[in-house]
Amino acid sequence: MPEPKREEDKIFSFDSSRDEHEDDSRPGSFGEAATGDPFAEGDSAAAAELSKLRAEKEELAQTLVRRQADFENFKKRTERDRHEEARRGVERIVVDLFPVLDGFDRALQAHDDANYEEYRKGINLIRKQLFEVLTRHGVQRIDAAGKMFDPHQHQAIERLESSELPDGQIVHVFQDGYTFHGRVLRPAIVRVVVNGSQSAN
Questions:
Q1: What share of the chain is helix, strand, coil (3-state, %, to 5)?
Q2: How far apart, in whole angstroms, are the C-alpha atoms of residue 31 and residue 24?
Q3: 180 - beta bridge partners?
Q4: Which residues pair with 132 in a beta bridge?
Q5: Given this structure, which CATH class describes domain 48-137?
Q6: pTM for the full model?
Q7: Which residue has better confidence, 156 or 11?
Q8: Which candidate, 101, 184, 201, 111, places its Cα nearest to that of 143?
Q9: Residue 177 and residue 188: Cα distance in Å, rounded?
Q10: Which of 13, 17, 36, 15 is nearest to 25 (CA)?
């Protein structure tokens, strides 16, 4: 009597062609035909967007630089205008004080008597203090005596005919002139030599 087959002796056959077909049909298997990168279009759009953003960033950076430069120029212009306005204010005060200096000068010239020496010293001291204050703010006296006539700094109201002195030399100052930060506020009033022989040459 033949023995029954044991379970472990059973032989199972495998259909290799079916297995290969199933393997090829699984998603993501190496057997899948290449149909192109599914992210290619997305990458191209992202690159274009990135390029656009970079261009906008560069434009904003350039705009910021220009705005910063404009602001710095505005600050400098405002500061310059403020400084000029302050200077004009001081200039108006300085011009109003010139007659005061002239009054001191006339007072000093009017009393040559020795009896007035102490008086002269006091007047001269006050005049000196006033002029030192003006000097600190940019006022300078035009040194005209003995100099050659300069129409930009001097105003001639008298002429002295002379063949011994150079033509155009200033021989007398009637009224001092002053400059303010290098600009003439008041010309010196002077007497000028006219030398006919030198003028002819």
A1: 55, 15, 25
A2: 5
A3: 139, 183
A4: none
A5: alpha beta
A6: 0.61
A7: 156
A8: 184
A9: 4
A10: 17
Q: How far apart are CA 103 and CA 97, in angstroms?
A: 10
Tokens 């009637």 -> residue: 174
Task: Enumerate the domain spans of the chain.
Answer: 48-137, 140-201
Show Cβ contacts of residue 131 under 8 Å, excluding neighbours closer than 6 positions.
101, 139, 141
Per-residue confidence band for 118, with pLDDT thresholds at 50, 70 and 90: confident
Q: Has residue 9 got a pLDDT over 80?
A: no
Query: Which residue is listed with tokens 């261009």?
Result: 55
Q: Of 178, 183, 156, 182, whose CA–CA distance to 169 is shortest? A: 156
CATH no., domain 140-201: 2.30.22.10
Distance of CA 15 to the CA centre of its chain: 91
Single-letter residue type at 145: A
| Three-class DSSP category at 124 | helix
Angle between helices 117-136 and 40-110 (to 10 degrees): 170
Q: Specify the pairing of strand 170-175 against strand 188-194.
A: antiparallel
Reading the block at residue 22, the tokens are: 């199933």
CA distance 78 to 60: 26
From 81, 178, 180, select the one nearest 137 (Cα to Cα): 180
Q: Is 195 in contact with 159 (CB distance < 8 Å)?
A: no
Token pair for residue 74? Answer: 């505005």
